[in-house]
Each structure stands twice: as C-alpha cells, then as structure tokens.
TrEMBL record:
Span of domain FAD-binding FR-type: 213-313
Highest taxon listed in the record's lineage: Bacteria
Species this chain originates from: Ornithinibacter aureus
Predominant cellular place of this UniProt entry's protein: membrane
Protein name: Ferric reductase-like transmembrane domain-containing protein
Keyword annotations of the record: 2Fe-2S, FAD, Flavoprotein, Iron, Iron-sulfur, Membrane, Metal-binding, Oxidoreductase, Transmembrane, Transmembrane helix
Localisation: Membrane
Length: 448
C-alpha cells in the first residue's frame, strides 16, 4: 500500500477536525465569548466538538480499515492511536468541566446542582455518563504502568469498552447539541461521520473476519512444540487462497476450542504463505499463548487480518538486514523465505539469550544456506545498566560499532526489526546512527 494513502488519511483526519471548528465558528462560537458564562460554555462546546470528532477518528483507527492500516503500519498506527486517544479523552473531560462551570455561572444551583441537573434532565446524559466512565476505564488501563500489570487478554477485553464508551457518549450530542442541530450541513456531517465510523467497525472488525473465517472453513491442521516454551500452529482452509497476505504480516487469532475463545491474540506468520496454509510460531508468555500447545487438529479458527507493513513490499534497497530478538525472529523467518534475493544480499541477525532458547534456529540456518543469505546468532544475557541490542560479552562495543562490524555497509540496507519494545528501540537507534535513513527501518509493535 503506497505511503500516499497514509498522507491522504492524515489529511482527511485533519480536515474533519478543521471542519468541526468551522461549524463552531459558523454557529456563533466566537461571538459567545464575551461573558464569563458565555466563554466557559462556548469553549466547552468547542472542546466537546473536537473531542467527539477525535473520538470517532480513534474508533476509526481501531476499525482496521485495510488501506489505512497497511499504509501506516502497526508501529506508526500505534503511536497515532495513542496520541489521538489521550487527546480526545482530555478534551472530553475539559468539555464536561467547562460546560458545567458555564451553566453554573448563569444559575444559582451551584456547580454540583448544575451537574446533577444536566445528567438527570437532559436527553442522553445518563448514557453519556456511562460512556465516559467506560472511556475512563480504557484510558486508565492504557497508561504504561497500568498496562504492564495486566495480562494481554485482560487488557484487550477492557480495551474493547472503547467502542461502548463512544457509542454511549456521543448520542446526547446528536440529540441535543446546538452545533449538531444548527444547520442541515452540520446534521448531515455529524450523523454521516458517526454512521461511517460505525459502518467501518461492523464491516472490517466483524463481517469481514467472519466471512474469511467461516466461509473459508479455517481449521488447525498441525500443532508442533518448538522446545518447552513455544508452539508452532499450522492452519488450513479454502479461504486462505483469497487472503491478500504477505510474509511478515500478522493476524489476530481466535481458536474455538472452549473457554477463552473470544479473546484474540496477535501472532505473525512464521512461514511464507503458500496459498493453502498459514503457519505461526508463538512463545508461551500468557494464557492465550500457553493454550496453543493444547490445540487439536480440526479446531475451528477465526482470524482478523492480515495486518502490518513488515513485508517485502516496503523494501527499497537490494540489500536487506533482518534483525530479530527472541520470538521476534518468526516474521523475519517468513520474510527470509519469501524475499527475492541474490547471494549475499540478505543478512539475518538472531539475538537470543541462549542457544537452547533459539526458536526456529535450525530452520533459519538451513533456509539461509539454501537462499545464499548470511545467518548470525548473537547469544548471551543482555547488557545491564545500558539500553542496547547487544549481549553482555559485547559490552566493550558500542551498538553502532557492533552493527557496522557485522554489516559494514549497513547504511545501504533496508533494516527489518522485530522483538521486545526496548530491544527494537535500541536496535533502531543503532541503525539510524549507522546512517540508515528513517524510512528504511521497518518494525512492528503490538503494544499501545
């Protein structure tokens, strides 16, 4: 998907925000700023309008619209998702405070009495209160410290309440908001924005995955242990032939084998797609991934995807460096298998804590030899007291020097990275410092 689609979608998002501000100005928002009550109420309406628009854009980002998701890539989309989400939440809270203060300034009921009156007597306000509480729960659990304390499955389930929060918080504005009802243009704009967002969620998060999964009759055909702490699962079905999947991309997977089936987990494919099967390899890091070892052939599978820009379509150079840490090597193994290359064009750096934990190492070595690539395992415990992609025994080297020692002309490579967040951050910093342009460093993150 060309990057121009990213620019187009960004321009569309900014256009929605600017048009929203224009509706506020056209509705007399500036003229109402003369008095204290008018200033508080009018700015409260503005923050509510922009917050609502951003909230709908945030839900649109969660809708996994294919050309948006693949134009941005998971890493950039995660950053935008987080920025838009926290900004919209802050504006919604500002809207509540400013509107309450503005109404209170023009009555004798006081702040608390005004707030109670707004919630009890205005249409849709009880729903808005419930929606706001749902959004508070989502935002609080998305803060990094809180997120780190939650299992992925629990966080993912809570995160879905963002849909509920948006669905409950916005109707009161559609029913009673002055700027929503001030003109036919405003009414059509807001109802159209709300309906198109809801339609995108229903189409791309519900109907398309259901069609691909059940019409395609996806089922588990093989489950293989990769040592004591990882499992490889192979899925087959006639629907795979119609999936536009590329090596390195990932799916959200659900296995209909009992309790826990409703929670999806993101796993990258670990073998190049062959049109008949999809294969992924996952480390046992949570309840969802541990239960993979108990799957049985014949289990029905639901998928969402494919997602991500970590594939050969973003390649710009003849030479490629694939750097993976731990289980992050799995999508790079698929890319290595599928990547057009000549002898010496591709270098694979496999970072592991110990050789016994090197998932798919034998496959990688054999595949690299067969394809004329260079495979290097970098093993050892990580360096303490320093953010680095290197092991402790390489402490005497800087990250950049070590990278140039392995790949002297790394500045003329595309660099693909996959691993833990901290490791990828250090590896990306080393690649950039070694002269690799920003648009030639490709990575994916699964955390928000």
């Amino acid at each position: 998907m060309p990057r121009r689609w990213r620019d187009l979608s960004a321009a569309l998002g900014w256009g929605v925000v600017l048009f929203t501000i224009g509706l506020w100005v056209g509705g007399g928002g500036i003229q109402d700023l003369g008095s204290t009550a008018g200033f508080l109420t009018s700015t409260g309406r503005l923050t509510g309008l922009v917050g609502s628009a951003l909230l709908l854009l945030q839900v649109g980002l969660m809708a996994r619209i294919p050309w948006v998701e693949q134009a941005w890539g998971q890493d950039e989309l995660t950053r935008v998702h987080r920025l838009v989400g926290f900004t919209s939440f802050t504006l919604v809270l500002a809207h509540i405070v400013l509107i309450t203060l503005g109404y209170a300034a023009s009555t004798d009921a006081g702040v608390w009495g005004t707030l109670v009156d707004l919630v009890v007597t205005y249409p849709g306000m009880l729903l808005a209160l419930a929606g706001t509480l749902a959004l508070v729960m989502v935002v609080v659990t998305s803060v990094k410290k809180a997120r780190a304390r939650l299992r992925y499955e629990s966080w993912h389930l809570i995160h879905l309440y963002a849909y509920l929060g948006a669905g409950l918080a916005l109707p009161h504005q559609l029913w009673t908001g002055a700027e929503f009802l001030s003109s036919t243009l405003a009414t059509v704009f807001w109802w159209g924005l709300w309906a198109s967002t809801a339609g995108a969620v229903i189409l791309f998060r519900v109907l398309l995955p259901l069609w691909r999964s059940f019409a395609g009759s996806l089922r588990v055909v093989d489950v293989r242990a990769e040592g004591p702490d990882a499992t490889t699962v192979t899925v087959a079905g006639r629907g795979i032939t119609r999936m536009p999947v590329r090596a390195g991309q990932f799916f959200q997977w659900r296995f209909l084998d009992g309790p826990g089936w409703s929670r999806a987990n993101p796993y990258s494919i670990s073998a190049a797609p062959d049109g008949a099967t999809l294969r992924f390899t996952a480390a046992h890091v949570g309840d969802g991934s541990r239960r993979l070892a108990t799957l049985r052939p014949g289990t029905r599978v639901m998928v969402e995807g494919p997602y991500g820009r970590l594939h050969d379509g973003v390649r710009t150079q003849r030479k490629v460096l694939l750097m993976g840490s731990g289980i992050g090597i799995t999508p790079l193994r698929a890319i290595l298998e599928d990547l057009p290359q000549g002898p010496g064009d591709v270098t694979v750096v496999h970072r592991v804590r110990s050789r016994s934990e090197a998932v798919l190492a034998d496959e990688l070595a054999e595949l690299a030899a067969a394809r004329g690539a260079r495979y290097l395992m970098v093993e050892g415990p990580r360096i303490t007291g320093r953010a680095s992609w290197l092991p402790e025994q390489a402490r005497h080297l800087t990250d950049v020097d070590a990278l140039r020692e392995i790949v002297p002309d790394v500045a003329h490579h595309d660099v693909y990275l996959c691993g833990a967040d901290g490791w990828m951050t250090a590896a990306r910093a080393a690649a950039r410092a070694a002269g690799v342009p920003r648009d030639r460093v490709h990575l994916e993150r699964f955390t928000s």
